From TrEMBL:
This is Epoxyqueuosine reductase QueH. Keywords: 4Fe-4S, Disulfide bond, Iron, Iron-sulfur, Metal-binding, Oxidoreductase, Queuosine biosynthesis, Redox-active center, tRNA processing. Catalyzes the conversion of epoxyqueuosine (oQ) to queuosine (Q), which is a hypermodified base found in the wobble positions of tRNA(Asp), tRNA(Asn), tRNA(His) and tRNA(Tyr). Pathway: tRNA modification; tRNA-queuosine biosynthesis. [4Fe-4S] cluster binds at residues 23-24, 102, 105. The gene is queH. It catalyses: epoxyqueuosine(34) in tRNA + AH2 = queuosine(34) in tRNA + A + H2O. The keyword Iron-sulfur applies. Belongs to the QueH family. Disulfide bonds join 185-187. Its EC number is 1.17.99.6. It is an enzyme of class 1 (oxidoreductase). It holds the Pfam family QueH.
Length: 224
């Protein structure tokens, strides 16, 4: 593995206290290590009620907890209020990936993140969501800025975690740690659509809990 060379990161306003919304261990691994390398005091906020089913949710959360514990990072485990997520997704069931259902989902997760940040003295919040090439980074950043903008003194850090080799390091860390590798974005509708695409290609449907980085199958695609 090549030596990981990271730039020195400076959060908005020069603040050193950051609340990191994490979606999963593969996407947050590079973000976490990059902030550690820059001596940023950060806390992980795990709020992802979109992830379905609950077994998949626990797989992703437990991997994130494992990696946070390894680095001694505080991990805030927020509620898995999936009923509220489904209520907000009503009527958007057939929207395409990266469409308005995803905007709703990012809004919901960032609203809760921003509330926690404001109530607990974090001047900056950010997210690992944008590091995946499967996501629309500007869509994510718009949602993050909108959520943070509701609170005085809170800024959303829209750093491009993909640049400067970030995407490559994300894969390196995932392989090194043998993270669980999710095969769809997370919600029941992305699972449905991914399986439909696989069926049309004559491929096997997704089996939860079977793919881990370090295996030949898991190395084919980056995290979603």
């Amino acid at each position: 593995m090549n030596e990981m060379i990271r730039p020195n990161l400076i959060p908005p306003g020069g603040h050193k206290k950051v609340l990191l919304h994490s979606c999963c261990a593969p996407c947050s691994g590079e973000v976490m290590e990059a902030m550690l390398a820059s001596n940023i005091d950060y806390t992980i906020f795990f709020y992802n009620p979109n992830i379905h089913p609950e077994r998949e949710y626990l797989l992703r959360k437990d991997e994130n907890v494992r990696f946070a514990d390894k680095h001694g990072i505080e991990f805030i485990d927020a509620d898995y209020d999936k009923e509220n997520w489904f209520a907000r997704a009503k009527g958007l069931e057939w929207e395409p990936e990266r469409g308005i259902r995803c905007t709703m989902c990012f809004d919901m997760r960032f609203e809760r993140t921003a509330l926690y940040a404001s109530e607990n003295g974090f001047p900056v919040m950010t997210s690992s969501l944008g590091i995946s090439r499967w996501k629309n980074m500007e869509q994510i950043n718009d949602c993050g800025r909108r959520a943070a903008g509701r609170y005085d003194g809170l800024t959303y850090w829209d750093f491009n975690w993909r640049k400067g080799g970030g995407s490559a390091r994300m894969i390196e860390i995932s392989k090194r740690e043998e993270f669980y590798q999710q095969e769809y974005c997370g919600c029941v509708y992305s699972l449905r659509d991914t399986n439909r695409h696989r069926r049309n290609q004559g491929r096997a449907l997704i089996e939860l809990g079977t793919q881990f980085y370090g295996s030949s199958a898991a190395e084919k695609e980056p995290p979603k």
